[in-house]
Every structure is written in structure tokens, then in C-alpha cells.
Amino acid sequence: MSEMWINMGPQHPMTHGLWNLRVRIDGELVVDADPEMGYLHRGIEKISEDRHYNEVVTLMDRTCYVAGLNWEHLYILASEQALHITPPERAEYIRMMCAEFQRIGSHVMWYAAFVADIGLLSPMLYGFRDRDLVLDLFQSFTGARMTYEYMRVGGVRNDLPPGFTDQARKVLDWLMDRFRDYDQLCLGSAIFHKRCDNLGVLKANDCIALGVTGPPLRSAGLKRDLRKDRPYSRYKEVDFDVAVADGADVTGRYLVRLEEMRQSVRILRQVLDWLDHHPGPVMADHLPRWLGAPYAPVGREGYVLKRNYPKGVGFSSIEEPHGEAQAYVVNEGSERPYRVKFRSPVFANLSASRNFLVGYRVADIPPIMGSIDPCIGEVDR
Amino acid sequence: MSQATLYSVSFDISSAIAGALGSVLPSGARAVVTSSGVETGFAVLIFGVNILAATMLNTILLIWWERKLLGRFMDRRGAMHVGFAGLLQNFADGFKLFRKDTVKPRDADGLGFYFGPTAYMITSLVIFGVLPISSGWDTGALPLTLLLALAIFSFAPLFIFVSAWSSNNKYSLMGGMRSAAQMIAYEVQLLLAVVAVVIVAGSFDLNTIVYEQQNYWFWGPLVVALIVFVAAMLAEMERIPFDLPEAEAELVEGWNTEYGGMFFAFFMFTDYLRALVGSVLVVLLFLGGWTLPTWVPSAATSFPLAGIFWFMVKTYIVFGLFVWVRASLPRVRTDQLLRVGWNRMIPLGLLSVFLAAVVVTAKCLPVFGCLPSVGT
Fold this sequence. Notes:
By secondary structure, chain A is an alpha+beta fold.
């Protein structure tokens, strides 16, 4: 066979979403790769300029559909900075709890998708089964399983229901046992090591040059985690380690994600204990009135300056399950953000496809791209 | 009561139908209908239809068995809603595919596109014409049934490649290439394992092979051959550790990407047909066919059609093991598969042939006992 381009996507089982990976192959060998994103572009940043601050939270759930609460967290942190609002302590802890549970949910979902890529069928179903428990927890305090719309500028929408922390601890115990099963099913299999060791290697230098963050970066041995390096919310006050692995390969990313889930459980146990002993308000006092329910239909009123409210810009960067996400919010004194801009970690990671893929085989493409954990909603926004 | 065989049952049905027809027809036509030539021809037809119906029913039951087992391995229940415990789900799926259109891509080659799946299914169905399922339940005195079955079994890569190439799709072509490479590579090991059995049994006739296992089943002394055979069979059946030709993660659906409707059903059906052949061959060659060990109380083997019953039980257990493997192993890569095939499996196959020679020279083994041809 001579060299040829094949389109893996936009409708292809490997893509985990809606994007197109064009690969040039020579027989089974990958010689070149060219990612094409943009099939899922919804103009979220532009739409945000036409919404009240709290209405944008709805859009954040639609950026990454497996890590909605992390994105809400990211946006809310930036908006609060722009609006000069400080949330109460308890709200910050609830947000941390949401973020860590969401990280577990996202990583378990990644596990399910990744093992399916290498042909392991039953762990895929185990992953979905265990993620359901996390979703049940979310449902109990947000009312939704996927699009939560839970966080608000100045706090969170409502407090946790009674008995929530005990239920959450039970789920954590169950999950810790399941992580052991996951390891046995993957690391205990010789075929898994044959498939994933020394695959998709991207060394730390290349990762930094290409802006690759998150588990791919930490799998290269670099201890970079924004929760440690630039703590937001109350991450300074909890105890945890940054998961790293050496090898910079697919197995390394697997190890990093599994260890991150264990560290999340560790964080969550501390956060749940704190929540048990510190009841209090979950919304800030003295919020401007227009931060409540919108009082005019969107588009009718246009861009109205609240001249009496101080202007400001907000920037936040969090360690999202997929990598480092950043948000920039400009407040011109209106009840709507003047400009909202996001940095998606997966966009940078996917842009490095060529560096990940060239030199490996066609059969290696799904595990390598799967190990990046593409979430196309946040790439295209 | 004389033992029922496939032939006798077919002849009984044939003559019963001919007699019933003859009693209502005028005498001229009656003479034609009840003549022995017509009755024999009719009996052969019934014979074929019997095998075909049994094969198809068993294949569909096998798909159900896989779905249920796989469901349990995955902590779910499998098909539940159509029929009792989802038994009729596959019929529903089949009818759905039957009603759908097969869309031929514009640039696909019509002849190969339709001929490939059809020939793939027909050749696989033919194999069941030569596989015995119990004593007397076979096509009769063909001396080389095993060789014939394996010969027909190895047609498949050709038809897969024809349909893959004529689909005019890059994924299909890659899947077809992989399939051809894999099946040809593993043919050698498969035959080496079979040769080990044939050396011990001294015959290519499956009836004789089963007869030779009356004192001990061959899987004990020939365990190396069994391992080689099962691994090669997994590769030939394209099931999960070796299902690269249709690795859905990278090749969408492999060589049958472009197929829909009934021709897709042909492919899926034939995959399970070949899985059934594989399980049946394991039972016949290594697990004593329809016989049971001598220490089993005779009540277990004396009821009508006991041979067929135990044969099916064994077949479904063997297939259950294949499903277990599918539920718990990841997929290997093409180059790894071929390397394992040539570097590991062929030496193992040769070792199994050597062990077979030892077994046959010793005639009587310490734990297992003697071959029946030795006498006791």
C-alpha cells in the first residue's frame, strides 16, 4: 500500500466526540497527523456577552459535559474576581467538593472510554456503573445528573441535603475498592502492558513547548498541579500529593489518573469532615440586586451600563480533570460580562496530535488519543 | 428401540409425508410419490433442511448465550425484554436487519460486494454438513471429515478480502488485509494442533477421533495442543484478544464497514457460525465429543438423544470460555499478534506434535489409561 490520508472522524469511534483526525499512513505506520477541530463550535464565549453573570453558568455545563462543575468553578472564580465579591467559607468548600467529585466522575468516564479503546469491554461497563454513583450524589444536591447549574456568583445555589456527607463517604469507600479492581484489570494484564507501555511518548520538554498540560504533562514526571502551584478556593488547607509518573507514555497517564482519583478521595474525606463541623451560609451577603433573577428578557434591554458598580477584570486558572483551564472575564460595570475568554486544556493537548502519534501504528491511535482524554465540548466551546 | 440416526429420522419423516400425500392422491400420482427414488430424494432434502435448521437455531441461541454471559460479566443482565429472558431478541434483530436496505456505495464493485458475504456464509454453513454431533448423527461414512471441515473453514479469508476490497473503503481494505494476514498466519498453528490429535487418534475421521477418546479425553495428554488450538481458533474466529480485523476503535467495523441490512446480518451470523464450528471442533478433538467419562453413572447417558444433549452442553461451555476471554482481555496489535503467532505458537505446535508421538508410542499412559485400539 502506498501512503494515504485517512479521515478518522468526524464520525468515528476513536474520536470520543465530534472532531476529525486526519492521519497519513504508510501501511499500518502513522507518518503524519493533522487534527481538525471546530465541528462543535457553539460560540459560547460570544453568547456569554449577552447573558447575565449567573446565566452564563448554564453554558459552562455545556463546555465539558463530563466536567461541568469544574468549568462552573472556573468561570465563577473569574467572575467573582471581576465583580469584587467574596463567597462565604462554606461555599468554597462545597465548590471544592464538587470539583473533586467531578474529577473522579470525569476520570472514571475516561477510564471507561479508554479501556474500550483497547478492547477491554467489561471494565467499560464497570466505569459507567461507578460513575453513576457520583452522578447520584450530584443529583441529590443539584437536581441534575449532567447539566447542574449549581454554582452562583457569590456562593452556591443551595446547601447540601441532610445526611449527604455520610452517603458521600459510603460512595468514597466503594470507589476506593473499585480503583483496586481497575488496576487489576488493566495493570494485571500482560496484554495491557504490551499495548500501552512506551506508547505515545511526549517528554516534559515537548509538553511545555506545546502547551500540553494535565495528566500527559504529569506522566512525564513534572510535578505541575495548579491546586498546589497556584491554590484557588481552599486547596491550601487540604492535604494531598500531586500524582506523577515517569515514562511519559500511555501507561504513565493511566497511572497518573488513577492516583489522582485516590488523591481526590483523600481531599474529599477532609472536605466532608470540614463540612460536617462548619455549618453556615452558602451565599455571600450584600450582593448587587441585579445578580439575582434577571429582570428583563435577554436582548430586549441591550447593553446597559450600571454606572455605579466598580469595573474590574477577573482571571482564574484551575486544574481541570483534563489539564489547566483558564478564564478571563471583563466587567465593564454592566450586569453582563463585557468579554469572556477561556483556555481549554484539551485544545492544546489535541493540537499536539502529530507529536503524539507520528511513528506509531494505526492500532495505537485510539489508546494514544484516548489517553489525552479529549472532551470536544470544551475544545470548540 | 433401535437407535435413531439422522438418516433414519429423515427417511421416516420422508416416508410418512409420502404416505400421507399418496393416500389422498389418485393412483397414478400415488405410484410416483411413493416410489423409492422420490422418497430417497425427499429424505435427502429433509436431511439437509434438518442440518440447516439446527445449525441456524444453534447459532442464534449461541448469540443469545454470548449476550447473556457477557452481560453477566459486565454486571448487567443482557437482553431481557423480547421473549423469555430475551430469547427472541436475536430474531427481532434479524427481522430488523431483514427489513433494512443494503446501501451499496457508488464506487463499490457490485459483484464482489454482494458475492463476498453470501459466499462467506454459504461456505461456513457447508461445514456443518460434515460435523458429527452424536453417534449416527452425521452425514455418514466420509473418511476425511476433519480435513474437509478445516479446508472449508479456511476459505473465509478469501471471501472477506473480496468483500473488503470491493467495498472501496480504506477502513474495509485495512480490515481485509489484517484479516487475511491473521487467518493465514494462524492456519499453520491450527493444523499443527490438529495433526497432534490425528497422530494419536490415527484417523482424520471425526467419528473415529471421538471413538478413540473413550478411555480418556485428549485434552489431558495433549494439553499443549489444546492451548495452541484454542488460541489459533480465537484468531480464526476473530474474537476479542485477536479481533483486530474489525477493531471498532480504529477501523470502525473493519471489513464490513460498508455493509448494512441483510448483508451485514450475513457477516454477523457467519461470525457466530464460525464460533460455533470452533467450539464444536474443540469438543470433538479434545473433550470426547458426545461421550462422557466411564465413571459417570449410566443413567446420565441412557436417555433418548443423550449424546446430542451432552454434546451441546459441552459446546456451550466451551463457547462460554471464549466469551469469558472476550470479557476480560484487551485486544493485541497486529504486529504483536503475528509475532506471537510465528515465534511462540509454531514452536508450541511442533512440541504438541512431538508429545502426540510420545503418547502414541507409549500406547498406555500412567494416569490416563490406554488408547482403545490397544485393547485392555
